[in-house]
Design a protein that fits this description.
four-stranded antiparallel β-sheet; five-stranded mixed β-sheet; alpha+beta; elongated; 14 helices
Length: 402
């Protein structure tokens, strides 16, 4: 019987409705109504034993079943073959002389079958500087200037102090994940000794023999900062409960009732919200402000290295006949003399650099963010108006090609 039905029974009974009428209207037996009323009276009366016994129906003698003699056999079969069906057990018992019905056997098997219990989730607190947790979330935001678009929310949280770093980004790729880690480290002024992750490809390449195989590039990054990545087991999201629960707080506090012009504006408001709302609230779990708890945790965090990890992406591109290289569906100019050359290109979060074969910088362009089909041209990269000079350079290039 559910709590809702019990509540209905007590509510109607206290209103003066008879037990028989309650049972008829709720579609249950009169004895169920009597038991519920008796329990309610017992909980509110000093003479609980007398009150409860007076309303209970008289006990009935239990009838023995033909199946009782085979219960030990059923138990042994279920222990040895936990997935054995009632039909197969029925076949085995018939061989041993069972003459009862299949329906009774099926109900008994349902009672005796040991069902796996859902593991109890035990929340535990860690010491200062011991653990951090990181995760991503996706949102669809209606920007007033940029329209509706998908954005990704990066979250990094110190488990002891609950102080957190948030940032909305366009992507969840390797370079973005690493760059946001670095910003989180600087925001929190240190690094926890371990960090919990789910099975994102940036961190975990695959699992073998119940052990995670970590992305070697990510391990290199973690080693640079001296902390240990810790991958949670698959299908165990509650392991990172401290970092996943605050997403609900973001939705109800940061995003709720606010409008944003653009992704940049959203991040500006997020930084204000972190400093003026999230960091200074009284956290229910630790009964402290995250900002105050972080002051206690700060001496225990790993110090930051002198130089940050290089998060830039390096790719190779060919300079086309127009003197442009292509990256992320946009075009950037290179010196016109390098038409046809395969050149290394280094891409940071905001800029694009073009190098020659000797790794000397040739060009530097601001990166187009959230746009495609754009062209960025440096006038110095265009060919001179002296056609004779152009012809000389082209002849030299053809000679190099043989």
């Amino acid at each position: 019987m559910t709590e809702q039905i019990e509540n209905q029974i007590i509510h109607r009974w206290q209103g003066g409705q008879s037990q028989r009428s309650i049972a008829r209207e709720l579609g249950i037996s009169r004895w169920q109504v009597a038991r519920t009323v008796a329990r309610h009276q017992a909980a509110r009366s000093d003479d609980s034993v007398t009150t409860a016994n007076s309303a209970l129906p008289p006990p009935r003698g239990q009838r023995r079943s033909k199946l009782d003699a085979f219960e030990a056999t059923i138990t042994r079969l279920l222990e040895r073959y936990p997935r054995m069906t009632a039909t197969r057990i029925f076949e085995e018992l018939k061989k041993q002389g069972y003459a009862g019905s299949y329906t009774i056997l099926r109900e008994r098997v349902k009672q005796l079958r040991s069902r796996p219990q859902k593991p109890l989730v035990v929340r535990f607190e860690t010491g200062p500087g011991v653990q951090a947790q990181m995760d991503w979330a996706e949102y669809q935001i209606d920007f007033t200037q940029e329209g509706r678009r998908r954005v990704n929310l990066f979250s990094y949280l110190l488990s002891y102090s609950r102080r957190q770093y948030f940032c909305f980004t366009e992507r969840q790729d390797f370079e973005t994940t690493i760059a946001q880690h670095i910003r989180a480290f600087h925001h929190l002024q240190g690094v926890a000794a371990t960090c919990l992750y789910d099975n994102m490809k940036v961190v975990v390449t695959r699992w073998e023999d119940e052990q995670p195989i970590y992305n070697t590039r990510f391990l290199s990054f973690a080693t640079h900062y001296g902390y240990r990545p810790w991958a949670c087991r698959p299908r165990r999201p509650q392991t990172k409960g401290k970092v996943e629960r605050p997403f609900h707080y973001v939705e109800t506090s940061l995003l709720n009732g606010r409008s944003f012009r653009s992704l940049d504006h959203l991040n500006e408001v997020t930084q204000w919200w972190l400093a003026n709302v999230a960091d200074v609230r009284l956290h229910r779990s630790i009964q402290k402000r995250p900002l105050d708890a972080h002051a206690e945790e700060l001496p225990h965090l790993l110090p930051l290295p002198k130089h940050d990890y290089d998060t830039a992406r390096v790719v190779y591109r060919i300079v086309d006949v127009e003197g442009m290289i292509q990256y992320a569906s946009n075009h950037y100019s290179a010196p016109w003399r390098l038409v046809g050359e395969l050149l290394p290109v280094r891409v940071t979060e905001t800029e694009l650099f073009i190098y020659d074969r000797r790794i000397q910088q040739l060009a530097r362009h601001p990166l187009f963010l959230g746009q495609t089909g754009q062209r960025r041209v440096d006038p110095n990269h265009r060919p001179p108006r002296d056609h004779a000079e152009q012809l000389t350079v082209l002849l030299q290039r053809f000679a190099e090609l043989g």
